[in-house]
Amino acid sequence: xxxxxxxxxxxxxxxxxxxxxxxxxxxxxxxxxxxxxxxxxxxxxxxxxxxxxxxxxxxxxxxxxxxxxxxxxxxxxxxxxxxxxxxxxxxxxxxxxxxxxxxxxxxxxxxxxxxxxxxxxxxxxxxxxxxxxxxxxxxxxxxxxxxxxxxxxxxxxxxxxxxxxxxxxxxxxxxxxxxxxxxxxxxxxxxxxxxxxxxxxxxxxxxxxxxxxxxxxxxxxxxxxxxxxxxxxxxxxxxxxxxxxxxxxxx
Length: 251
Ligand code: SF4
Hints:
Blueprint: H1 5-12, E1 16-20, H2 25-37, E2 43-49, H3 58-68, E3 72-77, H4 82-92, H5 106-127, E4 131-135, H6 144-147, E5 152-155, E6 164-168, H7 176-185, H8 211-220, H9 222-235, H10 246-249
Parallel strand pairs: 1-2, 1-4, 2-3, 4-6
Antiparallel strand pairs: 5-6
Helix pairs in contact: 2-7, 4-9, 8-9
The protein binds iron/sulfur cluster (SF4).
């Protein structure tokens, strides 16, 4: 795997590489590629647990992949679930939409990014790392927003006098087919939700999910569907960015 010169220098200087791992195919392929160029002692795998909201087996896939290469594995957990976050927001400000949106992705920041940063800072402190390279399995082909992301950059917003943060997107230029073939060539299996037809994996019911992913989620997780539908009724707002009620989307 070819890596940017800056990343090469960070590997040589002993930086800590954080493999963000959702349990999805892109995270899985990312970790396979990272292991080709980074010593295991410089990698930590971190999974932001979304509890009952995420596809079962996602955390286990990340944990097992880390264990297979003797990598450190951390679970980052927020103090609330997505549905609790929505309920609290509704109670505090019923006049504004209670659910996160594609532009205000409070779910990503509060349930994933924040808890992951907290755990990584702790891990870095305990293990004497001063430089962090946060690796995200984002691909340009997923969206125009992701296409615009720089594959490597210094993250000035999160850097401070104690820790310097960089961001690297090791699979940014790959297609979905590339990713599946990397997983296959490594002798691994992707999460079973892909065999059910899912395009993406994280929350079973994501605010930005395709109709197909939502339908798969509903067919396999009817109890969770009922919980989401009940929260839509309670708040009077819809979960999905299309503003169509979830039960109609999956009908
Ligand atoms: S998967 Fe979707 S709903 Fe879940 S945290 Fe991420 S953006 Fe939010």
